[in-house]
Amino acid sequence: MAKVRFKKPNTFKKNNKETLLQALIKKFTNINSLYLLGTMLLVLIIYSFSLFRPWQPFDEKIIYAETLLPIPTRLDEIFEDIHTFVVNCHTESMNSTFSNHMTIRSVPLAWSIFVFISYFFKTSPFLYHSFLLVIHLINTVLVWFILKKISQVFKYLHNNEQNHLVYTVISLFTLLWALHSANTEAVLLATNWNGILTFTFCFAFLLYEISRILENNFKNSKLRIFIISCLFLLQMSFAEHGYSFPLIILFVIFAFMLRQSNKFKYSLLTSLKLSSPYFIGLILFLLTSFLQADSPMASLFSNKETLDNHIKESSFYIFLERNLWLTPQIFFHFIKLLVFPKTLSAYQSNHVHLANSIFEPYSIFCTLFYLIFILLPLTLFILVKNQNVKFICILFYAFLFSLIPYLQIITPTYCLIADRYCYFPSFLLLFLIYISLCTFSNWKRPSAVISILLCLLFLMTVRTLVRIQDWSNAYTFYDSAIKIEKDPLYKGKKLTVLGDVFGSQKMMGKMEEYYQEAIKELQKAIKQLRILRKRNPVQPVTLKLYGLDYDTQLLKAAFGIAIIRSDNYQVPPKDILAFFEKYIKNDLDLLSCNQLLYYAKLLLSDGQIEKAKSVLEYGFKKFPYYMDLMHALADFYLDYEKNQEKAFELLQYSYKYFPNKGITLYKLLRYYEIKNDLINQAKFSYLLGLRDHYAKGYQKAAQIYLDLNNLPEAHKTLKKLVRLNANDPLSLLLMSRYLDVSGKRSKILEILNAAYLADKALGTNKDIRVTKGILTSLINVNTHLKDFSSVRKYLNELEGIKDLTQIEKKQILNIKQQLLQAGI
Length: 824
Description:
The protein is mainly α. It is 71% helix and 1% strand. It has 37 helices and 2 strands. It has helices spanning 12-29, 31-48, 61-64, 75-86, 108-121, 125-153, 164-178, 184-188, 193-214, 222-236, 245-261, 264-290, 296-300, 315-339, 361-383, 387-403, 423-440, 446-470, 474-483, 488-504, 508-535, 541-546, 550-568, 573-584, 593-605, 609-622, 627-639, 644-657, 662-675, 678-692, 695-707, 711-724, 729-741, 748-761, 768-784, 788-799, 806-821; strands spanning 91-94, 102-105. Strands 1-2 form a two-stranded antiparallel sheet. α9 packs antiparallel against α10 (222-236), α20 (488-504) packs parallel to α23 and α31 packs parallel to α33 (729-741). 42% of the residues are buried. The model is unreliable at 1-8 and 296-309 (pLDDT under 50).
């Protein structure tokens, strides 16, 4: 009898699935993941209140108004926009409320990514704000893991041991950074996405290096050097603020190496070797930047301090005074902002307290404070034998290096300080505190540590929520800045901006109210500044160079009043000029770039042509990268001197640096129209269409290309035109003309009929020239098709149009004669 074999059920796949599921559940329910997810969830909840707010006119206008770059309308436009507008694109960074300095920046990689993102996000504030929050959450995860790795280095976490105390402290420190009130601007300001993305690289690099320290992996292969150098070069291409990061990495690695080996020379050499890829990446960035005449780094030094004729001191003295007088005061303000972020504003520069003289007690205190911060760690490192103290002293410099890009050390920049500048330094400060806690506390009083951290976190979270509320709309944003402002000059400026906001919203009553309040504050500022100038007749050179001395601030107050009166109350230019010139005192060195432009326009309005020319030429010499001054001077040469070549030279210069600006393209088009250069007229008309989604630009370009029989360019332009507005009568007329010239005549009548109906639909708003063109084309096509009833219909309509030219009347007569000869 044969044995009956029962087939064993195949349970391998089922068991394997169960094992995998169990593993995933175990992974996401272990203590490590729970604390991390809880940390992320709290950050997400707090910042979720900011996701649905509208755009802020402050900086975010460059996105929704497309003032920096156009938003591609189709996928194939992304690369065309990048090639056309991004590669040589520069932006002016300036705000005369902060200082008279202007810097020019170019980060083509970041802007290329921005163009790509903008295609998908369009002008949705929710998507942009969510994007920034996602980056911030990624950074939060990286910070959490950095602190975890530090805990493992100090052996507070052993393998998978569930240590609730350590994970609680890690999460609280991470939350203190992620919800730090001074960092709110960095996360909320949509235009700052590349700034915090730059620091994503920094956090990732730091996590990588600490992980290697934990594993005692000190190998430096050629592959590692190549990859890290390239990645750091990539990071620098997003934003140049990370240039001090190689020094931070060097000192972090050196501190941990010295702690482990207790051998100074070996630790230093090993640290230099391990951090060398970051320095190589930085050197490559500097080389590629300085080798390009239009690079951001080369132009960073273009704003010559000594151009001001009233500054007699040497460049060395100016550098020394800035670093030993101004930098310490900014540094002290940074420390206050990091430790006690009470006064938060998009105008943080206005809140930096600056002494009125070199040897004022406050400036001496700040300089001593700054020097102590620099020298004390070095002194302790040399004198104290305790290895833990040496370890912390080295790490202290990593924190100091994070502030270097923002302290005006290398070169002046327009902004003294901003809330968003605290994003990375705040982490390194907490990083230093956490390591100090791990080094010295031994977790003897965990409840006290956790209690303190919880209290700090509560206070920080409340302040952050208040700051998020400040950003909820344009009114609360500027109103919060006005409420904390004590200086009448800066208060008047902010009241003016808020008045402008109400004006843009057609709330004329509110606009008038804020303008009047602004004038009162600015007049109050003039009185105060005159008194202060008498008390302190001699001020530091640095204040004069930054436009923060009393004479320049008096001029700023007068400028604010003049702008309101001329733009909103139609005060005659002659009266405005008389008022404004009292504060200029024939000293053009006092004026910022926008004040020079305004002064020149007042002079032109008053008929002082030669004086206006000298002001414009001086302004262009002092601020060679200020686009509006370039254009104003080019217009002067074109309109007043009829010197086309000098105007063209300036317009070419503008196009070299600002190909992304529609006004640059428009002025070049105007020049080529004067020169009757059809090829360049077509080129810049097309570029205007692409830059501003401007149908008339495309139409002009298509018309010229068809006149020149350049069918490939005409076809390319007409495709853009039809996508932009498929029912425009002129666009349809041009399309019919292209089909006729290219020999594709089968659809001409259909397109012309559509053009005819679209033109009719416009009623009294139609362009008669387009109407005549459509009717003439319909007559010709129907004549060819022998549809004479249609010919007579369109001919009668054409005859009914008023103000026909003699040529058009002759054409009608010829058509009638042809019909008669044909016996119709």
